[in-house]
Amino acid sequence: MEAAGARALAAARRRGRRLQAPATLKEQRDPQPGRRVPQRRIEEDQEEAVFREVVSFTPDPLPVRYYDKVTTKPISFYLSSLEELLAWTPNVEDGFNVALGPPECRQPPLSSRRPRTLMCHDMMGGYLDDKFIQGSAAQNPYSFYHWQYIDIFVYFSHHTVTIPPVGWTNAAHRHGVCVLGTFITEWKEGERLCEAFLAGDERSYQAVARQLVLIAQFFRFDGWLINIENSLSLAAVGNVPHFLRYLTTQLHQQVPRGLVLWYDSVVSSGQLTWQDELNERNRVFFDSCDGFFTNYNWREEHLERMLGQAGERLADVYVGVDVFARGNVVGGRFHTDKSLELIRKHGFSVALFAPGWVYECLEKGDFFQNQDKFWSLLERYLPTHSICSLPFVTSFCLGMGTRRVCYGQEEAVGPWYHLSAQEIQPLFGEHRLEGNGRGWVKMHCCLEDAWNGGSSLLIRGLIPPEVGNVSVRLFSLQVPVPPKVFLSMVYKLEGPSAVGVALELTTGDAGSCHVGGISALSAETSSRRSPRPLRVPPTKLAKWVGRCGQQLSGGWVQRCYEVNLRGCLLQALFVNFSRPPGSQEEENFVCRLGEIQVVDASSLLTPLPQVQAVTVSQVRWQPAASEGESGPAGLRLSCTLRWAYLPPHVRCFRIHCCRGSGGDSPCRAPSEPERPALLGLAFVNRYRIVDLAVAPAEPGRDGRVEFLVEPIPKEGFLVPRAEWGRAAMLYSTPRT
Fold this sequence. Notes:
globular, 8-stranded parallel barrel, mannosyl-glycoprotein endo-beta-N-acetylglucosaminidase activity, ENGase, 7-stranded antiparallel beta sheet, glycosidase, Jelly Rolls, Immunoglobulin-like, hydrolase, BRCT_dom, TIM Barrel
């Protein structure tokens, strides 16, 4: 990508953009009347690059595939034909759509024999609000947050090559979930496409396979669902197994934990005839790739027949369940559990198709309740997963909200939707005490308040008189604990409740964990611990955790813990609610969790890399509406920021700006400097600023806007402003 960026920079120079870096800022002659010669110079110092721009309203066009043609916002895209697929090569503009990295570690791994759960997301043709890579102002968007039940996420559409929008890939990977795109052919056009690459010699289908591997490798998703839903000639169908084997082999070599699945449609004769099972007519495709996704109109006798066909690969058969309940299906909608009961009874994996039914067909205002109801009905058939790496940090943000909050401080008001911003989600559900069952705890996601992001975790519960406390498991973990661990919990109680709130953790003997899987831990080797909160932060960590034990803004409270454990395995995190001292009454409580952190304390002592080489390019100016009859018309600025930073260290970047009317830096004025305005979040080393309102430059003076790139480390703490990346733009109007 860096090489592509250098090529684009060189191309910009050839077009007359003249991005240069002289030792000092020099003036240029005015452009000839009627001719736009964009003027840009860079002045480098140790902290900031300064770019010069002459305002012009004739911008260079941006490629429509990568940018929304109205707003110039970067968008995710698909490929509509074989020609587009074969012609695709990595482009500098593709950089916006690249995921942060591969899936996070989780246990058990996808390679285990445990039956898996696949979620196939098919919603109204795809590429809706989720196509806007940097987010949008969508109201009531679809959100998925039950990731701990899911092994594989497929983004499905009816375009030939469906590249998953990067927001989905980032959200899934953060939870350790594998992400697949879709390669689909349909109808007569599909027949022609398949003949073009399957009916000839091996060079044709190998070229297609190599392109699919290259796309998955470049955008950092994990593989493909292959869905051929049209008839094939004998020559073409004869090459399908070779195509699948070549694609699977190449993908395994280039993409860690890469996966190729085949959908039950075409049979070995080339006919399009869905079987609703794995059998002798389609087994050759199953034998050529990683798994088989059945059609939906099966009955239990289909499952019984498949036991012999699948052999030791039961988990590689994904029995399709259409949540919309179209056709002759066992169960769907709020009866989907009937299908899962039979599938799990026989030991197969499940492929849930279009669980967005709860959003598409039911009341949007009741979406969260309906979503929770749907997944709670399936819970007994959906084994959960364990997080197995540190740092583990979450603010419970859903990647959406009605406002933006940063550590208790409101930064912006208004709806927003940004899938990449979704944080790790807990094990949603309800826990009831054994015995009389009167004590209970239930968790919900909630947009009404947030500590960081757009939402928090709302926990309601009841402590009956006969017990002292209730607790609920937030996360399942399988983490070998470093010698010293720092933990933090930010919470607040609603109303006058004096219920005690404490973080608890479960540990086991790390020696019982072996490579390749997790052995069963007996009750004797596992224990729940409640660490004692710190009254003051650890001395060496005070720079990051100086608010331990303090009452924070908005009623939030932070509790910090430092735990020394050796040879232990961290297995679970709980939150415990205890009755106030002296209370004998039934205690109802409502608590919000704003953040949980589990961090290797030594990692906080390691210096962070700095954001470097911030550049400004792809500038577009537009006139804004006049402020009034006597006021000057404003300007709207769009441009692209790029910078250098090592991605493994970062959780995301927060992009800010300071706007001024003169050459002095508005972010660094000696008295009362302007507070930077948050523009948005970036999850790659670039950000497209769109329609930023700036004041027009006064005659004889430069206008100035300064951009700041704030890295947020994986540990989740705020970095001092002096360590942010900076770039400034000086702009002027052309002389007449």
